[in-house]
Write a structure and sequence with these properties.
Chain lengths: ~180, ~200
Amino acid sequence: MNIVIDPAVSSLLALGGAALFGWAAAHKLRTREAFAATLAEHRLVPQRLVAFTALVLAVVELATAAMLLWPDTRSLGGVVGAVLLVIYASAITINLARGRKDLDCGCGLRPRAIGGWMVARNLIVAVLLGLLWLPLSDRALGAADFATIVATLLIGALLYASIELLLGRAMPRDLFSAERS
Amino acid sequence: MSAFSISYIVLWVLVAVLSLVVFALVRQIGVLHDRIAPTGALMLAKGLTVGEPAPVVMVGDLDGVSRNVGGQRSDGRNTLVMFVSPTCPVCKVLLPVLKSSARTEHSWLDVLLASDGEAAIQSEFRRQNGLASLPYILSPTLGIAYQVNRLPYAVLLDERGVVLARGLINSREHLESLFEAKRLGVASVQAYLEARHADRAA
């Protein structure tokens, strides 16, 4: 038996992923210097390449969001997104293993300390995006699917934000700017 | 699979996640309660003794009415004497809290504001902060008789004029701790915590 994914679920995951990466990319491009500083703090990329890597990450995120929106490139977008999330999860894991728990994850409007839960979150979202690689089942989308997708996107976004706030350890902003300067 | 079975499954997933979030939130509230010790009005060493009658002082208020503070009350109501001053910044922050408490505790409690100094300044202060509904006592002797040396300071008297609780009030929690003190029959949060420690040790 072939494992297939329902088109409604597929659209839901794709739109959710597009929102996630679109928002992340917009934030990274808007505060490019701050993100580059955060990236440098992670001490994974050679200093000379930090600014370039920061830009590449933001552009790849933006491209991922665009690919997820377009049905023909959806499965490719899902895979690229999943790979990005696994890379981020590894970066966080490496720094947690180094015992550097007070790093900004660079993933939100406010500085937020990295933590084990972020690795789990990234892997869960990566698996969900990976599901987009599965072939679509044969079914036409109707009005009920449209309602399901819109409502789930809204509720999902709120729940995602709630979980982020619940689990995230907010970091004092001035502590960070002092460290960066 | 039809659109409705998909919608059904998606709903179940959302309900499950939502339940987990609610559970985490509730647990977080429990953790907060556990970490924050009860707070209460600060009892200063110097002052009236809880459980003993407060001195009865004849005072005048801004409306020109004379009244006795302390002593037996025929209507069986309790009295909260709140010492404030136009020159004390914390008092201003506390006044809305005081007004709201006066409203919610209306069934058993009369709130009196007490201060001393120039009547014109006090009237202006009372007008600016919308305190017309509360009697505003103007008396230098009351503060001395009640041994008030820091503001904002409150004394809660029962219907016999006995001091139920007193202390320095800086927040709503402090003010409400006086009512809690009456309800639980303890003098102050310090006394309550000591009794609890003694219980645990026993």
